[in-house]
Design a protein that fits this description.
14 helices; 10 strands; alpha+beta
Length: 391
């Protein structure tokens, strides 16, 4: 039997029409619209991400080339370049932000994504907090001034290590400080947050410790502290020190959380010591080191997002258009992660993204294509209808 839907159409089934229409009504995204629907805009921007289109012209021409197949996507005709540009500039980006969280919640409820690697025995929620800067040309994006001759925005991400996907995302100007944005993320008591040295702040550490939130980070090189106690070292482990310390600077004594734990780990690959700082007192030093090592997953997430989707070139120069493109990139990475979870072909995420790019309008069952992407598509059955010959 020939598959009646393209791969692109099967991906769009994760955004039900009635649910999307309710979000459109909530945000009044189609107010005073004249024929161009938000559904068409969603299809166009997801096509931009999954097909790696570099401009509005490529998006519109690419969809126009598949005119006979657009009906199955829920749209009648391909959008015009000017119409899509106007919609990206004026329709609220909050629509696609909420669409991302809605789809992410549905995937998590269905347990359709990878779960945390079975390397930790604790039940605490493990999170990573970091940001990535998206560079912009200051002449084209004057509202995003970052430095004297450079523009940019930041995506602040709180990554959930249960499935290595964002729990919260905030998009701000690039000049916004990471430490100041840390308070914008809601954290539950008992959570473990892994951060890099850019978030070192005594007041932040004191606030988290008082709220029952644990953290693991790297200690700054020139931090002033006094040694309070030495802990035992595990045998045959790369742990060189496990100490209880207290910061001695005036600011630390005023705002700091009190005694903290200093763990020194030997990195055999880089041949260097890594000095960790944490308020986790009950965990073993090897567990603390493993928790910080798992922070690399947020770097891999940023790498996958920038390499496989359109976050280096933008199809609009307004702030709203840029936000829409970033949120549709996050929606696309969610779909790619889900496909990667389902696939039995054991290919990398980048190979999956490139193969999907060339097969968006291929009419095959999505599951069968994931397991055997190089298989032969089903052949059209031979017609059994009798033909009459005129004499």
């Amino acid at each position: 039997m020939v598959q009646a839907m393209s791969l692109f159409n099967q991906l769009l089934q994760h955004f039900p029409t009635l649910e999307f229409a309710a979000l459109v009504k909530k945000h009044r995204a189609e107010r005073a619209a004249k024929g161009f629907s938000c559904r068409t805009q969603l299809v166009a921007m997801l096509f931009c991400q999954l097909a790696h289109a570099d401009s509005l012209r490529e998006i519109c021409n690419g969809l126009a080339c598949c005119l006979g197949k657009l009906v199955h996507l829920g749209i009648d005709v391909a959008p015009n370049k000017s119409t899509l540009a106007y919609a990206n500039k004026h329709r609220p980006a909050e629509l696609y932000e909420e669409l991302f969280y809605t789809a992410l919640g549905r995937f998590r409820e269905a347990k359709g994504l990878d779960m945390r690697k079975p390397r930790f025995r604790f039940k605490n929620k493990l999170l990573s907090l970091d940001s990535t800067t998206i560079s912009l040309c200051l002449e084209m994006f004057p509202w995003a001034k970052f430095r004297r001759a450079k523009g940019g925005v930041k995506a602040h991400v709180l990554l959930d290590h249960d499935d290595y996907l964002p729990r919260y995302v905030l998009i701000t100007e690039a000049r916004r400080s990471d430490v100041k944005m840390a308070d914008a993320f809601p954290l539950n008591p008992g959570s473990i947050v892994v951060i890099d040295r850019g978030y070192n702040d005594y007041a932040l550490f004191g606030k988290w410790t008082a709220a029952g939130i644990h953290f693991v980070t790297r200690l700054k090189d020139h931090a002033a502290y006094e040694l309070l106690a030495e802990g035992p070292l595990p045998a045959n482990r790369p742990i060189r020190a496990d100490q209880l310390i207290r910061f001695t600077s005036e600011q630390a004594q005023k705002d700091g959380p009190g005694p903290l734990r200093r763990v020194v780990v030997w990195d055999a690959i880089q041949q260097r010591e890594i000095v960790l700082l944490t308020n986790l007192m009950e965990f073993g030093s090897t567990t603390v080191a493993a928790i910080y090592k798992d922070r690399w997953e947020i770097e891999l997430f940023f790498k996958a997002l920038k390499q496989n989707l359109k976050l280096k070139t933008f199809v609009g120069t307004s702030e709203n258009a840029l936000r829409i493109q970033i949120w549709t990139a996050l929606i696309a990475i969610l779909l790619l992660k889900w496909l990667h979870h389902l696939s039995k072909a054991r290919w990398s995420l980048s190979n999956l993204a490139s193969m999907l790019r060339m097969n968006l309008f291929t009419y095959r069952d999505l599951t069968a294509w994931l397991d055997n992407p190089f298989g032969t598509p089903p052949v059209l059955p031979e017609s059994l209808q009798l033909s009459f010959v005129l004499l």
